[in-house]
Every structure is written in C-alpha cells, then in structure tokens.
Amino acid sequence: MSRQRILVVDDEKLVCWTLEKLLTEEGYHVKTAGTGEEAREIFNTFAPKMVLLDIRLPDANGIDLLEEFKERDEDLVVVMITAYADADSAVKALRLGADDYIGKPFNLDTIKHVVEKTLEKKRLRDEVNYLRREFKRKYDFDNLVGNSLAMIQVFKMIKVCAETDAPTVLILGESGTGKELVARSIHFHSPRKDAPFMEINCAAIPENLLENELFGHEKGAFTDASKAHKGIFAAAEGGTVFLDEIGDMPLSMQAKILKVIDNKRYRRLGGVRDIEANVRIIAATNQNLPELVNEGKFRGDLFFRLNVMTIHLPPLRERKEDIPALVRYFIKRFNEEYGMNVKDVSKEALDCFMKYDWPGNVRELRNTVERAMMFEQGEYLSISHLSPEIKRFAEDISPSPQTEEPVATKTLTRVDQGEKHSPQGPRKRDESAGMKYTFLLPEEGISLEDVERQLIEQALDRFDWNQTKAASCLGLTRDTLRYRMKKFGLLGKKATSP
C-alpha cells in the first residue's frame, strides 16, 4: 500500500496515540496534533492527503480549521471527529466540505472502514475528474483540424449549437468525416458538459431491441424482464443523446423519437406512465434524408424537426488544403501515444496524400498515418509504407522523362580554375573548399528535393547502385546516403542507366 499521509488533530492524547498506532499498522504515514496551532504548523510541512479533525480544540474551532485547510487544498479529504452531542456541528461541517464524520466514542474497525472508504472515494473522484479533463481535451475544438472555409463554417456552427443549447442538432456528412467528434464537441462546450453523453448506433441494433436500448423497460414487460431497466434517455438525464446513423432507424421508432422531441416525454416498454426527458438530441447520418423522405423511408415531420440546427461536414476531397495540417496533427498525436519521434511528413508522401481522393475521409487518413508510423524507422514519414492505392500517385510526382537536357545538367555547372565566368569576372578555385559549382535557378523555380533525388539517382546509376561509391561521389557517408534513399523511396530499388 502507498503511504498516504494522514494528520490526526485531537486534544485527547489517548485518541491521537490510538489512531496513530492503528493507521500506521494499516500502512499510512501518520502525524498528530493536539491544538489548532500545532495542526497548522504540521499541515504546512506535512501536506496531508487526509485530516481526522476534532470539532472541539482548546485553542480553535474545528469548523474554522476545516474551512482554512480546504481553502489551502480544495482536494483535501477531511473526516470530522465529534461527540454525538455535536451532531449539528457535524452536519454543518459536511455542508462546508467535510467528507464524513466519526462520533465519539468510536469503534476502531469503524475508523479503519471510514478512512479506507473515504480515501477510495477521493481516488475515484480524482480518476473521474481526470477522465473528464481528458475527454474535454480529446473533443476540444483544437482536435477539429482545418482552416478551410468549409471547416470555419463548421466551427461557427458548433459554437452556436453549444452556446444556445439547441434541443436538436443534425449532423450530415459521409462516413469518416468526424460526425461523432463534432457531436461530442458540441456537448463538451455546452451547459450540459458535466452530464452524460450517451450514444447509440441506430444501424447496429436490431429493431426489436432498439426501443429497449433507448427507453428501457419495466419489470415484467417481457419474459426475461426480471427487473426494471433504464434506457439511454434515462442514463443521459441532463446531458446529450447522440443518435448516430439515424437514417437507418425504423419508421416505428422514428415516431417515438418525434414524440420525445415534441413533448419531452417517453414511455418505457411495459410502462403505463410517461417519463420526462431532459436531454439534447444530436442526430447524424451519412444518407440523403430528403431523398429518404421522398422514398417514404424517413418521416418528413421528424426530418423537419431535426433540420433546424444542421451542420454539414465536407468530405476530405473537397478540403484538401486541410490535409497537411491533419497529417501533422496525427503525427504529433501518435508520437505522444506510441512514444515515437517522427518529425514530419516527407514531400513525396504529402504529395501522394494531396492527390489521393480519400473515399474514407479523415478516418482513412488517420488510419493511413497511424499504420505508416508503426513501420517508419526514419525521422520523416515516407511513401515506403503507404498503401498501393496511395503510393501509385508517386509516379506522377517523380520527374518525368525529358527530351531535352535534364535540369540538373543544364543548371549545375562546374567552375574550375576560372574556366567559367560570372558577370563579375572569373571565379577562382578554392583549394581548401574543393570544387565550386554555380546553380542557375530557372525563372519558374525548382524543387530542391527533386534536384537532390536526381543527383542521388545519377550517382547510384553511375556506380551500378554501389552505395559506398555513390556516397563517396556525393561527399556523404553511406549511412547518410541510405537515409536519403529511404526518404525518397529508393531503398530496395535497382535502376539501370539508359
């Protein structure tokens, strides 16, 4: 057991000695104080996680000390020690933040149980608060990546829906565009953020079970209903119900959802009374709801009740300008999750990403980056571990065969002992620096990475892909050459000179 620090404050020495001995044997680190002043001094240096505090002290009131300690450490666990005659004081202490109280005379087993139970409640409370913070961080606006005009509109709609506490929100978009992420972002930025967020996939649950999942049932509602069961609407009281894939919801259930929206009431299976529903409903679908309405597969009245605050999520192919930011966001995220150190994405891989249409949208991009990072050994995400569907676009990126003299041959000219002249006159050879070259930049510009790749391929071709000789020719170490070959997807490739 970890040695949790406990401070015992009581003016009876026998009580202090007994509690110190008992709790020390249980594995706690215990200190005692007999007065309020002594308790303050120990509190400052000991920093206890729990205080067992007597209400009546010779120089202080335990209630005042409680307020003082809680002001210094709001997470402090405080259990009051009181005589039964001071029950009113104990109740007041509970209102001021005490976690429990123990009446005198007390049983030692009771003390052990109260201490253990109270610290466990504190641990669970801390864990819940941590998970809530993580959930809010995970579904913060920062995780919705993009600065395209389409995404700016999405951000605005999320903000409006969250702040106005709109009773219904409809999210439309293809699979993988992030509908659930938007739904959670609305919830966690709304006044309902501290209440539950409950989701259900309407397409994944059979029709005969869906009503039970949503509304629950009363005892005896059907053969196996041995006790009452609360549904999602009851579990989400005060919070949000997210109906994913609502386009696949059966018509009979659509009528019941419409009743909840209109009347804020629902009825459990086997029930005889309506139950109030204090929830916000967020629905999402990848289907064309107006078309389903025309086909008689979706209720028009439900569509019009949902289609008030509507967020349209654009497919990734329509906002490709967001791809670089998304890729770098995923790289950062997976670096944190998996303890990796991939610095960035290579130009070739990013160009492939930009040319691919991403039928699976952001979800497919995320999975692609995650898979590539699992295999990547270098500092940059290369095309080596991309799927064939994406990698095939590398052919369009590679320099195309040219009928005229290659760019590198045209623009990279050796200047040797003044044989070539610049407008300022001949350049002399610097023996200490080696041979000098001048690069004549084309008016239309050029890609440095394309030049680097061409030089590496030419050096490899010259020496029949002998990496040691090619590295020496380029003034590189063999390891550096291999790193750059991997960067350009040349490792394992064997080319021959024309």
Q: What key attributes describe this structure?
A:
alpha/beta; 4 domains; Rossmann fold; 45% helix; flat; Helicase, Ruva Protein, domain 3; 21 helices; 15% strand; five-stranded parallel sheet; single chain; 498 residues
Describe this structure in words.
The structure is a single chain. The chain is α/β, with parallel strands linked by helices and 498 residues long. The protein has four domains: 5-134, Response regulator (Rossmann fold), CATH 3.40.50; 143-221 and 230-314, 3-Layer(aba) Sandwich (Rossmann fold); 319-397, Helicase, Ruva Protein, domain 3 (Orthogonal Bundle); 407-487, Arc Repressor Mutant, subunit A, CATH 1.10.10. It contains 21 helices and 20 strands. It has a five-stranded parallel beta sheet, with helices on both faces. Strands 7-10-13-6-14 form a five-stranded parallel beta sheet. Strand 18 (421-422) and strand 19 form a beta hairpin. Helix 6 (149-164) packs across helix 7, helix 13 (323-338) packs across helix 15 and helix 20 packs across helix 21 (478-487). The chain is flat and about 95 Å long. The model is unreliable at 397-436 (pLDDT under 50).
